[in-house]
Design brief:
By secondary structure, this protein is an alpha/beta fold. It has 17 helices and 15 strands. It has a 7-stranded mixed beta sheet, sandwiched between helices. Strands 1-2-3-13 form a 4-stranded mixed beta sheet. It is globular and about 65 Å long.
């Protein structure tokens, strides 16, 4: 095993803590990882929200192997290769009607940057060059490039990097535990929060706003499920003012909610969709922007020999990534994985909500096959309680994810009831060992009744998220 760990500066990691007690993975198959010592770890987060079909799937592995032997690289500028076009056709068969153009990137962060540039350039080529303002949302995560952290709303991801992009504003987030704690699926309250966009319009004027970008379900900031009718209302306001609506579906895409995309699940079609992660099952880095045809058509003017959109990446449509994506789509189709989440959603919901009465559990949220269990923070040590639960689960053979003091679950779509039982058993034990009950005058320990906590506790929870929230 590697002895010297100093040279690798790890991303979104407590480097000093990790290197004192490394958590190394050396093999993966199906629902599990294995450590170099041979210890089996149940994957409760699909790698990093990305291994939707499970690990080491044969068709994906073979597709990558065959492509590497056939052609390792093809230049994407002024050139193409067959699998790039084949993949695009396969993808637009899955996207909502009208979203039928594909621009390849290499990650979710790059997909976001691409969509933001497309939005601004789209208005310019139409003669509305004043539309340069971008609207994000508090507690939003849109990757780690400058555009993404500018429209994103996680303080820890922004505070060290200067003034970021100008001309960006943020709507309020939709998390409302006072009214929506322990909701199953979409919360009842909060539709009116979409009207925050009208406030942005009143402040800046619609003629300056290019696009709004939101995650249909905010994953990396603690699994924030949109209130009922919120996304529909946001779509209507964008239409009213000629503003493009971008869905960041890097996490929600490819079956996570029980439909191919969140746009399908909620019945709301954006103008652009950013995807990555499940596109290749995490096997090869790849992202994409799906756009409505009218967006691309706006650029198709002027002399035909000139480049229409000055943007792209050396590794856009990389042959290995395209092969991996095709193998992934085949695997999804063979096992109906893009809709399997809908069949498992009720069992998953029951599993995560069974933890409602545990010590310090102040909220449980779920939709499809993604869930969040929010814990009361240790006073003065935000994020530490959830991190202790994470370490405890690791020692007991379960991989979970933390963001602030929320435990996030997003297992591979091949999960079975036996895996759910193991997740609940292991995670429940870890939560119990993480400390006593939160003290609140309205606290109820019974699993049959919602746990109500004070506004001061919720303020502490929000502080924990701001202080310690991670990337996707």
């Amino acid at each position: 095993m590697q002895k010297n760990l100093d040279a690798y500066w790890m991303p979104f990691t407590a480097n000093r803590q990790f290197k004192q007690a490394p958590r190394l993975l050396s093999r993966a198959e199906g629902m599990h990882f294995w450590t170099p010592e041979g210890r089996q770890i149940l994957d409760g987060i699909a790698g990093l929200w990305c291994v939707n079909a499970g690990h080491a799937r044969p068709k994906i592995v073979k597709a990558i192997q065959d492509q590497a032997a056939e052609m390792d690289f093809a230049p994407p500028f002024q050139m193409g290769h067959p699998k790039a076009f084949e993949l695009a056709e396969r993808l637009v068969e899955l996207t909502p009607q009208g979203v039928n153009r594909v621009f390849y990137t290499n990650s979710g962060s790059e997909a976001v940057e691409t969509a933001l540039k497309m939005a601004i350039a789209y208005h310019r080529v139409r003669g509305e060059g004043a539309r340069t303002r971008l609207i994000g949302r508090e507690r939003g995560y849109h990757g780690v490039n400058f555009g993404g952290i500018s429209v994103g709303g996680i303080v820890a991801n922004r505070k060290m990097f200067g003034t970021l992009l100008g001309g960006v504003d943020h709507m309020r987030h939709t998390h409302d535990p006072a009214r929506n704690a322990f909701s199953k699926g979409q919360p009842e309250h909060g539709e009116e929060l979409a009207d925050d966009l009208e406030r942005m319009v009143a402040l800046h004027d619609a003629s300056t706003i290019a696009a709004v970008i939101v995650e249909p379900v905010s994953g990396s900031t603690g699994v924030l499920v949109p209130p009922k009718r919120y996304l529909e209302r946001l779509r209507s306001i964008c239409d009213k003012h000629g503003i493009l609506l971008i869905f960041d579906e890097v996490i929600t895409g490819f079956g996570r909610l029980g439909s191919p995309f969140a746009a399908d699940h909620f019945g709301v079609t954006p103008d652009m969709m950013c995807v990555a992660k499940g596109l290749t099952n995490g096997a090869v880095p790849m992202g994409a922007v799906f756009a409505k045809q009218f967006i691309q058509d706006a650029f198709m003017n002027g002399p035909e020999h000139l480049i229409e959109f000055f943007h792209g990446y050396t590794y856009s449509a990389h042959p290995l990534a395209c092969a991996a994506a095709l193998g992934t789509l085949d695997t999804y189709a063979d096992e109906q994985l893009l809709t399997r989440g809908a069949k498992m959603a009720k069992s998953f919901e029951n599993a995560v909500h069974s933890m409602q009465g545990l010590p310090n559990v102040i909220d449980v949220r779920n939709i499809g096959l993604v869930g969040g269990i929010e814990l009361a923070p240790i006073p003065g040590e935000p994020g530490k309680r959830a991190f202790n639960v994470f370490l405890d689960c690791w020692e007991k053979g379960l991989l979970v994810r933390t963001t602030g003091d929320t435990i996030a679950l997003s297992p591979p779509l091949i999960i079975e009831d036996s895996h759910l039982a193991q997740i609940v058993d292991t995670l429940s034990g870890a939560i119990r060992r993480a400390g006593g009950h939160v003290q609140s005058s309205n606290h109820h320990a019974s699993a049959a009744a919602p746990i109500h906590v004070s506004e001061s506790t919720h303020a502490a929870v929000n502080t924990a998220v701001r202080a310690t929230a991670h990337a996707a």
